[in-house]
Amino acid sequence: MSAFSDISIGWDGKDYVIEGRQRFRVICLVEEEVTIGEIAGMAMDPARLKATSVAKGFCAILRFLGVTEVQGGKTVPITAETVFVRMFGEGADGDGPLVAVTILLALIQPHLPEPTAVRPNRAARRKSASKAGRVDGNR
After folding, report:
1. If you write DSSP's letter for every residue of 60-121 in order, what string do you get?
2. What does DSSP assign to residue 126?
3. Per-residue confidence band for 139, with pLDDT thresholds at 50, 70 and 90
4. What is the phi/psi pair of residue 8, to 5°?
5. What is the distance between the alpha carbons of residues 131 and 24, in angstroms, rounded to a whole number?
6. pLDDT tens across 64-78, in order?
7. Is the torsion defined by CA of 46, 49, 51, 54 positive or negative?
8. What distances in angstroms separate CA 100 from CA 35, 67, 95, one per listed residue?
9. pLDDT, tens digit, 9 for 90 and up, residues 2-22
10. Taking the model in full, what pTM does it have?
């Protein structure tokens, strides 16, 4: 079982899926452009938002997914410049960079199993009690 579940990302009216087993690889690509600490900082304080860094991180995801664009009549991998412009384009309402930060945060969050209660075995309890100056758990 992967530590990550599948995640869906929409771009240009199309949904793309990053499989859980691929997410760590994608996170590594994103962190080459913008660190997790920077992403978290921008999410907590939008005044610290660096739209160019967000665009480069999001572009890393799109390139991994094989998203392309046409430039000069040629189909090429999408560029960070295009992502940057689109974050502020039609329908973005100025929230494009914050939406991208939210998606980046969702991407890095692993699927963690529910914690289980751990109860030390009897020998461990005795050892702990004797270290505290008690023998066999008696005071």
Report:
1. HHHHHTT-EEEETTEEEE--HHHHHHHHTSTT-TT-HHHHHHHHHHHHH---PPPP------
2. H
3. very low
4. -105, 135
5. 43
6. 999 999 999 999 999
7. negative
8. 14, 16, 9
9. 788 899 998 988 999 999 999
10. 0.74
